[in-house]
Recover the amino acids of this structure.
């Protein structure tokens, strides 16, 4: 897994942090946060917080006490323990795009399918830089609505041996996720000891946690599985058109969700989530890869560290309709701050297109190329007298070249990062090879990866048990 | 002009800086630097440095004494003083691509022409974010070799009222640049008082300054015009395959060029130049937008600040053959560190394609979009209690939306950066509008900008004098 030992880029002054601190405290105490689940409200009430219907008015110190119970770092186990990850600290974990209903490859844009899901799972497994296929890498429109979570989990568990994200659509789906995890990881005690999935709990921003999300949060928390409490903030729609205001709201929402997880089970692994961008104020469309979202990401990393919490954010977000220049510069506009802020869990790393409506095969490959490059850029280099290579300068002298120098010959194989997608072919060679732009080459790489994909070994009895669980539950769910 | 008040991202530890310090001192003192101009060697000898043929062996303390004479910040005047710039400090100045022999628009790739040059000049004038058309935004292959510098300068002076870069091909060209500057800015004393051009002096790396470059350096230094002393380092070819080694070499080359400028005229405004990337070790092709070049850029900014010198580097560098995803992510891979390192003078900001062989109309527009976005991202936001917009939260409450909130209504026009190229149109609308990808839209924007371009006013006597100078010199040069 990747560890980011480069410095963090922090942009908030102590005064700015103090302003934000006043902001979230005022929101949770004066306006309160709605929890659309009576059990949650009761728990807060029992813990001494003032409640009024679904609204909970928090003592900020109580929130901080709960938050302090969360670990600053925790492990998630993968089926192949070589792919286990650590969430928190300097570690960065990269997961695929999550949620798009549509699929795109070349000029074809259509509803996603289970076959598409499986192709993405194969890509996630094939690319070393990716830590997870994620949860819903594309919505499989051809699978029955009530049971498709079973199909996706089965695919993720069998086609990859990396960590998975749990399904959060309902308490039922969360329970199914846990049951399948128990099959793979050896029972409830084993998954409670070391979690196997990580789970996205979105806030119905502003200031409301909805019932299904809370069902999932509580179900996963009871099982000791990590929850990412994520305010969903498109400034202008779900938050005011002011970055400081959105950041204060984000703290208020994230911390109160985290507080609930700690009430359910003290020590529940949690992640301070951020999904912060803005809408185009003229069309109302969400925009991604914006300057505002970059600032938000840098600020959020600093805020999460202030609360000693792991942090989720960033990824290859963009608004573009096709895997073109815009899709790439907007993605970089987010991915670079993702690294600069040391984001611990990165959803939407690869495949995101069209504002998150489309999972794109080409974009997946492009994003992995960006990811690999940034992983190299954010790896510290060693400065010592040997690295100065004075001998090479002595050998080559003035106006010569280093191509054949001893120092070069000894290192040429791995001295520089070698991209797998980017081309530096000269124009003649590039033309001779078919004048293929990046998207065309990306599609070819994806095809080859999927073709050459090898299914990771799984105990056949375990696979059978998983399959039987899926089939039994599918019947029970009426599909 | 743009001022970058965000923090600098510094990646070199004090130990790394000390290692580099040992490195460059050893190179200049033990290996020496070649100066292919007897006059330069004589000056160093007269100043007490040991020389052997073209090689000068430096006392590092002497180099530092000379460097200390250079201003850490200086002004360059434009024809329209509203476009004057400051080089140094937190200021960032953005200039166009420089040097490509080829031009590309759509699927047409051909030799550049003076018409192309003029189109780029119009774009540079039209986009507020750009500070200069630069020097050779594209090589006009249809203009006579010996006099094309006159045509380019005439175009830059008359079609734009922003700062220009001087021609550096020969001492003759430098003299012509100065003479034309004297016409525009009111004589030699006026341009010596405040320089009007900035001039790229490349090192013939490793460790050699060539005669023509030194001719130009000395000619410009005598006239008090700024010189950018730029080691030209493609690691693996012009420097060892080690970033620390390349950085030490870069310091050795840049500082000795700067020392010469100070000997010629103490106080000559100079810029610590950097053009640092690597070759593909299998094909030998130069690669741009690489992780290594990003690290080099961040490190170089820190190094230049250490020597209290303004710094040139970065831009929209990439290896791609077309303005596609690769061209954009590689450009961002350079432009983001360009901002993070607070680069004072940014060449190649817009238009660079195909490893610098091609000036692309579409890429010019794409790069300006990237530039504008980053300028917004690197503008600090104000954190105070008003920015927390608590009233907006009170108004909207829980699970509502902020679209119609008073706070939003008062600010919706300028609360977020609004891109001029990026599209967040929904798929239906985008399809209805012709399914245009970024490059197609960029070409349309360029066309419109060129069509709507208005020539900035110039005193007709001055324009006539410039034209007469160009025509007279063209005849004298035999074209």
């Amino acid at each position: 897994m990747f560890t980011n030992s480069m410095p963090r880029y922090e942009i908030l002054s102590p005064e700015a942090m103090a302003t934000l601190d006043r902001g979230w405290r005022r929101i949770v105490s004066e306006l309160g946060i709605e929890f659309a689940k009576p059990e949650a409200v009761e728990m807060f009430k029992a813990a001494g917080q003032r409640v009024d219907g679904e609204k909970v008015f928090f003592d900020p110190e109580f929130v901080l006490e709960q938050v302090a119970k969360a670990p600053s770092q925790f492990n998630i186990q993968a089926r192949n323990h070589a792919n286990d990850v650590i969430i928190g600290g300097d570690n960065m974990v990269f997961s695929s795009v999550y949620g798009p209903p549509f699929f795109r490859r070349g000029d074809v844009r259509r509803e996603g399918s289970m076959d598409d899901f499986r192709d993405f799972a194969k890509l996630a497994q094939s690319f070393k830089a990716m830590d997870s296929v994620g949860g819903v890498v594309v919505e499989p429109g051809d699978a029955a609505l009530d049971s498709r979570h079973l199909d996706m989990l089965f695919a993720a568990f069998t086609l990859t041996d990396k960590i998975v994200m749990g399904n959060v659509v309902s308490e039922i789906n969360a329970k199914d996720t846990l049951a399948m995890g128990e099959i793979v990881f050896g029972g409830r005690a084993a998954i409670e000891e070391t979690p196997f999935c990580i789970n996205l709990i979105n806030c119905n921003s502003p200031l409301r946690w909805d019932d299904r999300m809370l069902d999932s949060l509580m179900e996963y928390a009871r099982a000791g599985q990590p929850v990412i409490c994520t305010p969903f903030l498109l400034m202008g729609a779900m938050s005011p058109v002011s970055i400081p205001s959105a950041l204060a709201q984000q703290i208020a929402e994230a911390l109160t969700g985290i507080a609930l997880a700690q009430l359910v089970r003290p020590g529940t692994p949690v992640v301070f989530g951020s999904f912060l961008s803005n809408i185009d104020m003229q069309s109302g469309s969400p925009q991604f890869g914006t300057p505002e979202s970059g600032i938000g990401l840098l600020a959020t990393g600093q805020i999460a560290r202030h609360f000693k919490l792991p942090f989720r954010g960033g990824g290859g977000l963009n608004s573009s309709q096709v895997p073109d220049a815009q899709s790439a510069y907007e993605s970089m506009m987010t991915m670079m701050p993702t690294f600069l802020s040391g984001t611990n869990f990165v959803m939407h790393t690869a495949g995101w297109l069209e504002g998150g409506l489309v999972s794109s095969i080409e974009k997946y490959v492009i994003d992995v190329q960006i990811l690999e490059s940034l992983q190299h850029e954010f790896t510290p280099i060693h400065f010592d007298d040997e690295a100065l290579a004075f001998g090479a300068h002595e050998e080559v002298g003035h106006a010569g070249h280093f191509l054949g120098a001893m120092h070069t010959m000894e290192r040429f194989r791995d001295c520089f990062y070698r991209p797998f997608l980017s081309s530096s072919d000269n124009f003649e060679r590039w033309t001779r090879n078919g004048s293929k732009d990046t998207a065309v080459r990306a599609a070819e790489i994806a095809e080859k990866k999927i073709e050459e994909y090898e299914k990771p070994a799984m105990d056949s009895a375990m696979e059978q048990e998983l399959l039987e669980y899926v089939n039994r539950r599918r019947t029970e769910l009426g599909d």
In short: The radius of gyration of chain A is 23 Å.
